[in-house]
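User: Last request for today: this protein with beta-D-glucopyranose, please.
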Amino acid sequence: MDISLKGKRALITGASSGLGEVIAKEFAADGAKIGLNYHSEAEAAGKIASEIRKNGASVLALQADVSDAGSVEVMINTFVKEWGGIDILVNNAGIDGVRSLVWESNISEWEKVVKINLFGPFYCAREVLKYMVAQKSGVILNITSVHENIPWSGYSGYTAAKAGLSMLTKTMAQEVGSLGIRIMSLAPGAIKTPINQSVWNNPETLGNLLKKIPLGRMGECEEVARVAAFLVSDYASYVTGSTIFVDGAMIDYSNFTHGG
Ligand code: BGC
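Assistant: Here's the final one, the structure of the complex with beta-D-glucopyranose:
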């Protein structure tokens, strides 16, 4: 099976590092034109863009704060002006936020996490769907997390946002199904990225994490990017409205691996 995204115009948010970067590179290698969104890491985004260009794909680096509706509108308009439409949106931008228990949490920190992880995908989908609905085609992939299912003490804003995003996926998929537009969630588990570096850098916390993963190891960004490419491709033409987990069975209650 040879995945082709030839000629598809794809916008990936939060693509200046981690999963977003690797998804952008994978889609470019599969023939897509890339809109590479970044927030503050202009230099990193520029480097990734020129690497993608060197490999023969078209790419547009687009600065925008996904948690700001006005900024998102400008970004999508620029993208569509350049390429005449949009075929794929990957809502990837996200942050874990600072660990804090609910009663000790700072309201503006909590709101920031929810704004980036939930409002951001909503703002991007809202703008992009205006074009996709008119075209009667398109795919949106929302990057959620195993924490759309698994509670995570100290990260209530993150878990609430990811669970919310999962339901937003389902609701949007219902709204646009009759137009042939597909909307899915991809839920990564513990993938080695800068977001969780402090955990995998420390043997003790890493050991603790690995006990939670039946496959016994963390995932690599490429392992997520390949599934993302499949899901946005025509090979997945009958997949919509659900979450696909790429997590080494982390959601599979691994504490029960050795009996109840
Ligand atoms: C978080 C990571 C965490 C993983 C597994 C992800 O959604 O962003 O920091 O390692 O879930 O808990």
